[in-house]
Each structure stands twice: as C-alpha cells, then as structure tokens.
Amino acid sequence: xxxxxxxxxxxxxxxxxxxxxxxxxxxxxxxxxxxxxxxxxxxxxxxxxxxxxxxxxxxxxxxxxxxxxxxxxxxxxxxxxxxxxxxxxxxxxxxxxxxxxxxxxxxxxxxxxxxxxxxxxxxxxxxxxxxxxxxxxxxxxxxxxxxxxxxxxxxxxxxxxxxxxxxxxxxxxxxxxxxxxxxxxxxxxxxxxxxxxxxxxxxxxxxxxxxxxxxxxxxxxxxxxxxxxxxxxxxxxxxxxxxxxxxxxxxxxxxxxxxxxxxxxxxxxxxxxxxxxxxxxxxxxxxxxxxxxxxxxxxxxxxxxxxxxxxxxxxxxxxxxxxxxxxxxxxxxxxxxxxxxxxxxxxxxxxxxxxxxxxxxxxxxxxxxxxxxxxxxxxxxxxxxxx
Length: 387
Known about the structure:
six-stranded antiparallel β-sheet; Cathepsin B, Chain A; alpha+beta; 387 residues; 6 strands
C-alpha cells in the first residue's frame, strides 16, 4: 500500500480512535464504580489480546482441536494419562483440545504428583476441584475417599478425585459447561480466575501439541505461529527492500505465513514478493491490487501446493466462510480495510467471529462477524489450499 494512502488511513483510524476513546472513557468511569469486577474483566481482555488466535480441526482451520503430541508431551505426560486425555477430549460434549487438559493437569497437580494436597482455597485432587464443583461434575465418585484402605493406595488407584481416570472426564465436563466449545480462553479463565493462569495453560498447550491441529499438509502447531509483520526490518533481506516494500507487502506477508503453515517456509517477505511475480501488478506504491487472488493462487501452485478459490462467485455469507475454514486457513482480502484493501490470513472461527494472522502494525488477531463484513469490508474472495 502507498505511503500516502497509509497516512490517510492512519488519519482516519486516529479520527475513529478519538470517537472510540470518548466512548471508552465513559466505560472506564463505569468500571471504576465496579472496580473488582472491572479489573478482572480488563485483565482477561488483555490476555485475550495477548494470546488471540485458537483454531484447527483435523483438516484445518475450523473449531479448535489439539494436534499430535510433541516430544515434550511424550516426555512429560505419563503414557496412560496421555492416552486418556486424548480419548476424553474426543468424547467431550464440546470441541476441546486434549492439550488443554494436559496443560491444566500439569499446572494443577503436576499430573497427579500433588493430587493429595489441598490448596489454600480448599481445592483438592488431580484437577484441584472444590468439593461443591466436584459434586456437579465428578459423577458418583467421592471428592475425597474416607476409606483408610483406599487412602493408603497411590492416587492413581483411589476411588476419588485424585485419580486421573475420574478427574479428566470431570475436567472436560466442567470446561465444556464453561463454554469451551465457543470460547476456550473464557472456559480456562472460569477454571481458575487469573490472567496468569490462562496464559500458562495456553503456553503449555501449545508446547504439548498446539491448540491448532495438523492435518491436510499443515504442520504441527500451525495455528499457534505468530503473525509475520510486514513493517519489521528482520523480515526482509536488505534495508533497501524493507524501505521499499514495508507499506505495500501485506499480500506477500500473508502468502509467506500461509506457506509456512503448510511446511513451505520462505526466507523472507522479499521471497514472497518474488514468488507473486512482477507481472501481477504488485508494486511498492500500491501493493497487490488483486481482490480475487489469482496471483496468490499461482504462487501457491509454484510451491507445489494445490490452491482452492471460490471460482466465479465469492463466498457470500459467514456460513460459507466457516465451511471453507473447516478445510484450512485462508488468505482473505478486506476490500475496505485501511481504505484500499489488505490481505490477511484467517485461521479459524468461533460463534462470534474469525481468528486472524494480520501483518499490519495493528496486528489484529480477531474480527467479529460484523466487523469483518462491515469495517473490513470482506468481499468474499479467498485463497486456500486443498487438503
């Protein structure tokens, strides 16, 4: 995108910010009256912004799931627990990554090593449940056994909440009841009302196998990869290239990110620009003025992947977009974003909107449906990879 256009977009964004901040100031005054609740909400919002972007079915970018166990997971999670975590997650009443069960089990009791200890809040067992919560989700199994013979057994053999065989299904039921199928981070926050807790669970889950699954050619942990910033000097081969392309390289950065998700990483955004090609109209002043994406589709073909596009008709609804995202991440053009359009990657969705990897300096991680089709002006044209 040209520097002049960028400046005008920033000016418009700043004008919008003035109005938005006026509304936010009023909201802050209300929050100050409800400070304890307000701080919790604000803190949770910060963690959402920091870790925004969960996605991945076995075939790509639909509802959240978990990938194959990493070397770290195999080394740290006891094998019988690892197998049960995967079974419980697959049978859960909502879409739930097994990696989140593993992360919570690690944080709460070290996979059962401290399951026989009671926390300062009165929580107990493998999943550190309060007694009342366990009664709601633990079935007919006692929270803490009162049988002396049972108490003498290892925690993994007891008939109470210290046994992972009973605790893992209870953990899954509790997370699903807390909305894990619609908003995973909100469900994790419900499990333990602390921002640091959400952050630690998400980080561990990514290390154990990702919160986005691999499949259809996608690499392990593909959805947890950070965005590729088109304005960062380290993403270019030279100072001259960075200065020339940084305002216009959104399409190249999006292409570079998508190729990396399919195990075809490029060395720099320069390489993506070259792959798109000089005969496509891409330029340092206008970027790639190509809302339908044939140049990007040809670039994917040049790397041995099989592109998929809507053909002659764009996707005309969020329902259609979800079907396409179920098959993998998508390059998308926002027809009105920043004024002239802006290529970005959509990696998954929940009931309220789409998770994205955005190369701009704003690094937008999530777009509500209304913002996607409104402010961003998504035109319905996408480019993906055939699984």
